[in-house]
Amino acid sequence: MSAKNAENTAIHARIHGRVQGVGFRFFVQAQARRLGVAGWVRNEFDGSVEVTCEGPADRVQRFVKRLREGPPGARVDRVDVTNIEYQGIYRSFNISP
User: Fold this and answer.
1) What is the pLDDT of residue 96?
2) Separation between Cα atoms, residue 29 and residue 97, nearest integer Å
3) How many CB atoms lie within 10 A of CB 37?
4) pLDDT tens-place string over residues 67-91
């Protein structure tokens, strides 16, 4: 692993609760851009929200903390986070269809 990869990390998360129809994806995108991490967010058919994020480890950690809080009007019951291999493939953070 190179020194650059040692400083970066990537996660996949699934957020459960009242997280659709409350601006959750827009909140996630705003937090990601504010923290300078990249990836995507999308709604899932089961009512959850799915996120993939990569960037500096400390920023990703703060991003996950924000996922657990959510925006006003949301209710986050559970956040399942899985560490995945950092690839450096995302250049921005987008809302996926």
Assistant:
1) 94
2) 13
3) 24
4) 999 999 999 999 999 999 999 999 9
Just list the catalytic residues.
25, 43
Looking at domain 3-85, its CATH class is alpha beta
For 1, the token pair is 């692993």
Residues whose CB falls within 8 Å of the CB of residue 17, separated by 6 or more in sequence, listed in order: 70, 74, 75, 76, 77, 78
Output the 3-class SS for the chain: CCHHHHHEEEEEEEEEEECCCCCHHHHHHHHHHHHCCEEEEEECCCCCEEEEEEEEHHHHHHHHHHHHHCCCCCEEEEEEEEEECCCCCCCCEEECC
Listed residue (29, 25, 32, 26) closest to 10, CA to CA: 32
